[in-house]
């Protein structure tokens, strides 16, 4: 069994910075994070072990300091939190902040805002809660439900595949040929790199393992993308989720991971697969030796010997 890793995989700088900031802040006084700092269960467990608390509602916070997640928040949400007398620490990824600013520029210029992303995702809520009017789309059906506007201003959730985003932008232009459609590409570079590297890897592999949290949007998008090029794609959270039955001695196995997956989880999966590869190689060799022995060695059966 041969094991390959994607050229780009795992935790991005925005997530690393958010985790480091949370650890530093919690070392000086109690800290509550509003929502999941990152969408990875292992990372969240590590942060809880350091005394960091998590709440979805600012009204439930009992610490004097709260942190906004890497996914960002609306200005309305930030103001409401500060009005409660809470000290706000922002861990918003700079590339998410760029998406917020791009959307604000389009709205200020008179464009009707369209966000390509998941309507209920925390990042999308942060982008839209300050808007009086907007549309969120992620499918052809949602695109078809839009009504005519003179001008559409389009941005995207930072973790969506750029090919899917461009396809929807083109669909918007085709559906409304008389409208002006201005698109600002807000898909982040780490997402683009991981998607591109995953496609390249999937085309070389018979099995692909994607490591990431169950609630990680970019991990789910990696799974969907890889499934277009590799028939056997498995999403795992940790090495414990790996099943030996997924792999064969002759397989080429690829490893990639979402942008909230820490290096140690990737290393553990790779080490587990290396051990499995060694076991399969041993069993394969043993099988060949037994087969050779049965066909060439003298048999203890006198009937066979008589021939």
Task: Describe the overall structure.
It is a single chain. With 307 residues, the chain is α/β, with parallel strands linked by helices. The chain has three domains: 2-8 and 190-287, 4-hydroxy-3-methylbut-2-enyl diphosphate reductase, catalytic domain (Cobalt-precorrin-4 Transmethylase, domain 1); 13-93, 3-Layer(aba) Sandwich (Rossmann fold); 95-187, Cobalt-precorrin-4 Transmethylase, domain 1, CATH 3.40.1010.20. 45% of the residues lie in helices and 17% in strands. The strands form three sheets. Strands 1-12-10-11 form a four-stranded parallel sheet, with helices on both faces. It has a four-stranded parallel sheet with strand order 3-2-4-5, sandwiched between helices. Strand 6, helix 5 (122-128) and strand 7 form a beta-alpha-beta unit. Helix 8 (189-202) packs parallel to helix 9. The protein is flat, with a radius of gyration of 25 Å. The model is unreliable at 292-307 (pLDDT under 50).
Task: Give descriptors for this structure.
11 helices; four-stranded parallel beta sheet; 3 domains; alpha/beta; flat; Cobalt-precorrin-4 Transmethylase, domain 1; 45% helix; Rossmann fold; 307 residues
